Amino acid sequence: MIKKLIISGLLLGSLSACEGMNSAGMVDAASSLFQAATINDAEIQTLAVQSQQQLDQQNTVAGANNSYTTRLNNITRNLRSYNGTTLDYKVYLNPEVNAFALPNGSIRVYSGLMDKMTDPELLFVIGHEIGHVMNGHSKSQARTNLLTLAARKAGAASGNSIVASLSGNEIGTLAHNLVNAQYSQSHELESDAYGLKILQENNYDKSHAVSALRKLGGGGGGFFSSHPDSANRADRIEKM
Which one is catalytic: 121, 129, 188, 190? Predict the structure, then answer.
């Protein structure tokens, strides 16, 4: 309780410097910030599902009989769930080299990435994304994005869930930010370790992780920008 009061006080204090904001606006904005800072796991999951639905609608999803879907299903046949978390895979028919994971275990792989990777290399990348889910990195990114949004608006009325108050455009913005989340170096290394673990569990060695990261080391958008330093991470794994 003391911790919540301190957080609330800090958030309200940070708003007091905003010029031109009336008292009611300050209270509503503080309420939104407090809700975003203390959002529970169930609300994060709700936000993830809403984000997943928007992203799936905005992209061309490979059908059940598509060759990309068949290949992805084969690669992930032993990974329909992991440590009690159900995982959901789909392919976006998009030439961009990219993949991402949402906090609810939704993993989306772009056909451009699949074209670039062998099956074991793709398994490492998927394992890396699973690591972001299992280690709570995706959840942390969702909370950070909610805080950023709450800071810009006096969104939810006091006592209501900030997630329930989001408009379609706001959910779309949050979904886009989750796809392009910038992870810290420590988060990337933790997720690389997960990818290596999953490779080992499927009887592959670390060379596939190294070659995958080498292929991703060329710079550019998509996976390159949201998962930086691929070449350095490849060097690290190679020396292990």
Answer: 129
